[in-house]
Amino acid sequence: MTTAPQHTGPEPLWSPGPERIARAQVTRFQEWAAERHGAPAAVPGDPAASYAALHRWSVDELETFWQAFTEWSGVRFSHPCERVLADRSMPGARWFPGAALNYAEHALRAAEDPARADEPALLAVDETHEPRPVTWAELRRQVGSLAAELRRLGVRPGDRVSGYLPNIPQAVVAFLATAAVGGVWTSCAPDFGARSVLDRFQQVEPVVLFTVDGYRYGGKEHERTGTVAELRAGLPTLRAVVHIPLLGTPAPEGALEWDALVAADTEPVFEQVPFDHPLWVLYSSGTTGLPKAIVQSQGGILVEHLKQLSLHCDLGPGDRFFWYTSTGWMMWNFLVSGLLVGSTVVLYDGSPGHPDTGAQWRVAERTGATLYGTSAAYVMACRKAEVHPGRDFDLSRVKCVATTGSPLPPDGFRWLHDEVAEDMWIASVSGGTDVCSCFAGAVPTLPVHIGELQAPCLGTDLQAWDPHGKPVVDEVGELVVTAPMPSMPVRFWNDPDGTRYRESYFEMFPGVWRHGDWITLTSRGSVVIHGRSDSTLNRQGVRMGSADIYEVVERLPEIRESLVIGAEQPDGGYWMPLFVHLAPGARLDDALLDRIKRTIRENLSPRHVPDEVIEVPAIPHTLTGKRIEVPVKRLLQGTPLEKAVNPGSVDDADLLKFYEELGKKRR
Ligand SMILES: CC(=O)CC(=O)O
Q1: Which residues of 321-343 are buried (b: 16+ CB within 10 A; e: fewer)?
Q2: Closest ligand 1 atom, CA of 430?
Q3: Where in this chain does the record put each AMP-binding enzyme C-terminal domain (predicted)?
Q4: Which of 152, 154, 279, 470 would bridge with 298, disulfide CB 3.0–4.6 Å?
């Protein structure tokens, strides 16, 4: 017997069919956990109620959920834990104390299966768009060889190993070998300049640097030997530099050759480390001061990523997982974790727009990607450039197109549905570097509604709070997480008493993670992200997300990109300028100005209409491509440039001078 679905509301854009729901790993996990661990059984015929019950249980019974999940996914503890969550405080939660394991061992599990040894673990693609496989056996061999060499070089558990590398197989091998040894990985993409890299790596004092001589991007070679020399000079703790000759340059003096280090046939030895042993250091955008050096643990990332990739992304052996990213963004770390569930990971090292805007779709086609992830900005750029992926590429293997980086606007959902495939699972997901994961996003058994993330993730007690700390539903509130997640930072590097860590997340609501995003949890169980709460627009007490304004303004073909700021003025007033970067050939004349204002008024509200529209040469971004809002606001309020922003965290620091001048003029 089936019961009628409990949840009503607007028509979804897409719904999974019964077969897909039955096959989904989250469905199988629920059945298994209901039998063995007292999880609520699925509600027949009502996937939304089933997921809602499973989610409720996963946060109410947090320890049981993680116990069940680690059993279900076969996590190998070489030493069992005393309990799952010994201390729930935030910060300071203690997960799986006493347990020992190794992340890299799990990432190479599929290589132990003789039937899979010759299948690709990695598919590496450059701008030729020709996939080059690295088999599971080969990946395991290289990791074994390199881990032995790292040990020979004196790398011990806890030592930092750095990579100045593009998204190439060598980066994956170097990371896994570091994790196998118990070392702490950290990476920057080679488009970061020396100052940006040193701001990051100097904090963690690496003993080894893996580096390329340069990289190819947008059809051009970008030589990096000068920057590498600066890095070597600026990192006195280095005991070894490993040279990867991507452009064919001979190794500089004193550097070791990559090929020699991965040549041996050595069985990997996986150091068994405590659950909370550091796996890597990631860096937050770091808009002022040095970037935050976020430490996440081997065990925390292992279980959180296993959960994300199996239950939420529904990935497993047989899948090909492609996410467009660089090694400087946490999505690279997330992508590599695709190995944990035995999927083939697609590494694309190149420009998203070379030779044309459709490049990423071509890579998805050529590699047979089954889950293709990208940034919401790329989707919107394809829409603007009138790319027709469904018409021009064979995307028949793609089961899910996922987006992150910023909320996917409603038009992005419609475009993917119309231009890629009508029967396409579109997963807009959101989390951050701070947890190297998602708070809300993909659920293979749930429908997709335009402009919404499908649901909060399992084991994530996601809530929207009003300023008094009261949970709200169907209303915009602060994104908070009221119970610990295993991938929350174990600490920040260089923050001995934890002050910076506490100030970053736990100040507004003590003991509760406040992320800094505006969010709505809908009564239907879905989630809407409205943008950063620390750059919120607040007009006459009405709070608005900047993302809503970008979404409507950037529908106009004349607007390439925009930036909206709300700046409190010394006289108690509020100034809300909209900065626009125009498309080639467009002019900000009265007619366009009028259209911008009208579009905002009609699609949002008269309150959203900016006080001024100002043309700028370009919009500044963080190195991971996010629009810089808070520092621009501070510049407009008269904060000097050197105090408002760390130039090393910006894609084009010169752009900021314009905002500083404007701020000065308005004083
Ligand atoms: C998962 C994410 O939230 C990624 C990001 O936007 O940085």
Answers
A1: bbbbbbbbbbbbbbbbbbbbbbb
A2: 3
A3: 551-626
A4: 279
